[in-house]
């Protein structure tokens, strides 16, 4: 069983810990955080240090790989870049809950997290470092770009395209053949019945453009 570190220590990290424990593929040595309290434990696991401590911790604990537990898409990419720079030899592992339903021909990129109750249907493609949250679904022939996310309960119809860094929030629905551009955000509970350009916030039923946004703007 390979030793891993989890980078992040919030609620998202707790869900990932549960997935890793249920998968039984990796041994979690501990977690990293920007400002760790070394006396604190997260679900029984120690906070071992900061991101800059990664090279030292890799040697001390014989770490083979990491899982990034950062919910914000843009921030997650920054953390991945730092980890690659500091420890280029490290693997990025995915975490897939045993109760997720994944079609045999679906493709899943490295570092992606798929939670309980998720459904990924045939000929779908999921990029690197994506999040498919609890009870979300990605229908046939749909694609998620790198660093995208589906919040709990999101339904994505068939033949949809979600551009890099875009986030679909809780309970939103995309009807079939919708395209979401890059760095866009779909508000919670929205019904998206027409495509969304890049760098937009849309909300409502049907979803309408609320405003433009910049890359990295907070949405969680």
TrEMBL record:
Q: Which residues bind acetyl-CoA?
A: 170
* Residues that, per the record, bind substrate: 71
Give any Pfam family that matches: PglD_N
Boundaries of each PglD N-terminal domain copy? 3-81
**Record: active site:** 140
Membrane-crossing segments per the record: none
InterPro entries to which the protein is assigned, alphabetical: AcTrfase_PglD-like (IPR020019), PglD_N (IPR041561), Trans_hexapeptide_repeat (IPR050179), Trimer_LpxA-like_sf (IPR011004)
The cross-references to SUPFAM superfamilies, in alphabetical order and at most eight, read: Trimeric LpxA-like enzymes
Q: Where is this site: Increases basicity of active site His?
A: 141
User: Which Gene3D superfamilies does this entry report, sorted A to Z?
Assistant: 3.40.50.20, Hexapeptide repeat proteins (2.160.10.10)
Q: What is this protein called?
A: Acetyltransferase
Which species?
Candidatus Desulfolinea nitratireducens
